[in-house]
């Protein structure tokens, strides 16, 4: 290569020729299989020996910085080249692409090096001087908004997205205006500013429907809009109300999958944005469908869509290292783990919790965002294997790590159920119940969590023998869960009401509760409610003199007990069972094998 370059120099060819030749060599080495990055870098560095003009010098610094940033670990050298590209390009008129790409890439590198305080002023300066370049102005606004979002400064992020929406309107890009507004709507949902979300989503809906442009871009805006609507309903625990929106979303993604990507570039440079690739949108729609199925208690459906989504994710991750794919994978696993615990597959749930730990070990940011959920899942697993002390420790760790109001209320509800089962934690229990009082100032707007809080009150009243009070709370749960098709809460409330009527000697009324509870639990399927219902049906039929039905119920109870017992032993024997002792710091990488189950089996029998 040195010989070739020397030949060029001796022939005193035009600068364009030697520059194009070196650039051609560099690109050849970069795209070789496998890439020859060292040789690519040598070719680009050779450009500087020819004392190139400023434009070539700045562009080469950008190219070197980009190659080093994307293909090597030499971030200091990458940073040096990008800083030079940014500095030189600012002195050159009409050199926007190099100037703003250098700024964008350099701020990304600063963030990677935890130099956020260097990234922010750089992006602000680039935004300030890019107002005549619509594409870059919008892209840099999105980038700075994303940086503020990662820092949990959602107010500043929302302000920037508002600025972007107004700028896009002025430059005649309704498409990118909608993207800015939908992104702002997403952050307002995260902040629980529901009063601002509703008018904004209404405006977005109008813009999306009226925009006439590339069909894939239009449908992708509709997917974004509908995903926000669906997650808003699910956050509010409104499983029945969400169905029309969810159906529209599923139809929308089917439409997108039939459309071909047009290579025609938009005439307005401000329109050169995509929300998500088509394949990512498909996974996202699977994900919200799983969330809905889990909340509604259609657990076999949740399993089916999880399998489809995880298969799609595995294919995508072979070709795409985008961090959002790992986030999708973790959220899918979090939901399917909860389903497994309900359906009596604790050993599988535990292995999937371990899988989430491994994914979080690969990404500190992923762990920061999901540590509370991970401890919550371990707490739920501990309840399922009757390790109540460990469950308390896990939920306490989760409460320490979360600022998310709905997750906090979910954890507190489950921790209250642990204290009720332990029976000797009255002070702590009453303190918790005061904070999730469904009759007075309930802390979140979730219909589902408020219904669950009534159920917890009913459970406590039942254990304390205050049966009339328990019935009031449980009827409230039933009313709320029936209104929004919350099948699991309905099944749990029915079986507990059946138990209360059985204790009170009202066998007919008890039967009227337990039979539908059993039918619903079989449909979900909820193994614990099936076990509980079959035990009650056995005793009820015996009391009513229905010998054959009593025998059949006893057989069912025996079968459920055996299944749960075998699963319990399998789960507690796994080395991953030791995760129940982890309550602080990053998740452990290795697990010691168990000698056998360490928790009591009494609660299962």
What does it look like?
The chain has 605 residues and is mostly helical. Among the domains are: 1-93; 131-260 and 268-274, Serine Threonine Protein Phosphatase 5, Tetratricopeptide repeat (Alpha Horseshoe), CATH 1.25.40. It has helices at residues 2-10, 15-30, 37-46, 54-71, 75-89, 96-112, 116-128, 134-150, 154-170, 174-191, 194-210, 215-235, 243-258, 278-296, 299-319, 323-343, 346-361, 364-384, 388-401, 405-422, 426-435, 447-463, 467-483, 487-503, 507-523, 527-544, 547-573. Helix 3 (37-46) packs antiparallel against helix 4 (54-71) and helix 22 runs antiparallel to helix 23. The longest helix has 27 residues, at 547-573. The radius of gyration is 30 Å and the shape is elongated.
Short recap of the structure:
It is found in: Nucleus, Nucleoplasm. Helix content is 76%, strand content 0%.
Tertiary shape: elongated
What is the makeup of the main sheet? none
Number of E-state strands: 0
Q: Supply the CATH architecture of the domain at 131-260 and 268-274.
A: Alpha Horseshoe
Q: Class of the domain at 131-260 and 268-274 in CATH?
A: Mainly Alpha
Strand content: under 5%
Q: Bin the helical content.
A: over 70%
- Low-confidence spans: pLDDT under 50, at least 5 residues? 1-14, 593-605
| Element-by-element helix/strand order | HHHHHHHHHHHHHHHHHHHHHHHHHHH
Distance between the termini: 78 Å
Q: Total number of helical segments?
A: 27
CATH topology title of the domain at 131-260 and 268-274:
Serine Threonine Protein Phosphatase 5, Tetratricopeptide repeat
Class derived from helix and strand content: mainly alpha
Organism: Salmo salar (Atlantic salmon)
GO biological process, one term: chromosome segregation
Region (Disordered): 584-605
Biased composition (Polar residues): 591-605
């Amino acid at each position: 290569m040195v010989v070739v370059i020397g030949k060029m120099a001796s022939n005193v060819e035009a600068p364009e020729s030697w520059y194009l030749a070196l650039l051609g060599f560099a690109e050849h080495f970069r795209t070789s299989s496998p890439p020859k990055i060292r040789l690519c870098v040598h070719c680009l560095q050779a450009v500087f020996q020819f004392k190139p003009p400023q434009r070539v010098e700045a562009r080469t610094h950008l190219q070197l910085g980009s190659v080093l940033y994307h293909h090597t670990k030499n971030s200091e050298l990458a940073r040096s080249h990008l800083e030079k590209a940014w500095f030189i390009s600012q002195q050159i008129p009409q050199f926007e692409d190099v100037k703003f790409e250098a700024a964008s890439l350099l701020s990304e590198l600063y963030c990677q090096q935890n130099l956020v305080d260097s990234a922010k002023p750089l992006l602000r300066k680039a935004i300030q001087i890019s107002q005549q370049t619509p594409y870059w102005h919008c892209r840099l606004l999105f980038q700075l908004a994303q940086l503020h979002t990662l820092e949990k400064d959602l107010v500043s992020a929302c302000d920037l997205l508002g600025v972007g929406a107004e700028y896009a309107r002025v430059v005649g890009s309704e498409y990118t205006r909608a993207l800015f507004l939908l992104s702002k709507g997403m952050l307002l949902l995260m902040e629980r500013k529901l009063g601002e979300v509703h008018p904004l989503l209404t405006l977005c809906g109008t813009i999306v429907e009226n925009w006439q442009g590339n069909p894939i871009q239009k449908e992708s805006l509709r997917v974004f809009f509908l995903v926000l609507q669906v997650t808003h309903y699910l956050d509010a625990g409104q499983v029945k109300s969400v169905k029309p929106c969810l159906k529209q979303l599923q139809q929308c993604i089917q439409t997108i999958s039939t459309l071909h990507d047009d290579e025609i570039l938009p005439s307005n440079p401000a329109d050169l944005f995509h929300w998500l690739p088509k394949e990512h949108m498909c996974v996202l729609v699977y994900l919200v469908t799983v969330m809905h199925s889990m909340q509604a208690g259609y657990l076999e459906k949740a399993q089916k869509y999880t399998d489809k989504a995880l298969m799609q994710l595995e294919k995508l991750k072979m070709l795409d290292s985008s961090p959002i794919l790992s986030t999708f994978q973790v959220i899918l696993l979090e939901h399917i783990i909860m389903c497994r615990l309900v359906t009596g597959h604790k050993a599988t749930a535990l292995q999937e919790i371990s899988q989430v730990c491994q994914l979080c070990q690969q990404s500190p940011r992923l762990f920061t965002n999901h540590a509370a959920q991970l401890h919550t899942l371990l707490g739920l697993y501990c309840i399922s294997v009757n390790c109540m002390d460990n469950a308390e420790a896990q939920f306490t760790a989760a409460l320490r790590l979360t600022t998310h109001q709905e997750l906090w209320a979910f954890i507190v509800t489950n921790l209250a159920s642990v204290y009720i089962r332990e029976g000797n934690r009255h002070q702590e229990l009453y303190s918790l119940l005061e904070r999730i009082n469904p009759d007075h100032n309930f802390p979140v707007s979730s219909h589902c969590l408020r219904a669950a809080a009534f159920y917890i009150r009913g459970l406590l009243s039942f254990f304390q023998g205050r049966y009339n009070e328990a019935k009031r709370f449980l009827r409230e749960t039933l009313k709320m869960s029936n209104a929004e098709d919350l099948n699991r809460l309905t099944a749990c409330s029915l079986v507990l009401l059946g138990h209360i009527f059985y204790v009170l000697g009202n066998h007919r009324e008890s039967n009227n509760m337990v039979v539908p509870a059993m039918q619903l639990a079989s449909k979900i399927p909820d193994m614990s409610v099936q076990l509980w219902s079959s035990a009650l049906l056995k005793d009820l039929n015996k009391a009513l003199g229905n010998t054959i039905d009593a025998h059949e119920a006893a057989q069912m109870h025996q079968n459920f007990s055996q299944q749960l017992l075998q699963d319990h032993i399998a789960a507690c024997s796994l080395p991953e069972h030791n995760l129940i002792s982890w309550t602080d710091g990053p998740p452990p990488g290795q697990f010691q094998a168990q000698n056998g189950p360490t928790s009591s089996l009494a609660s299962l029998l």
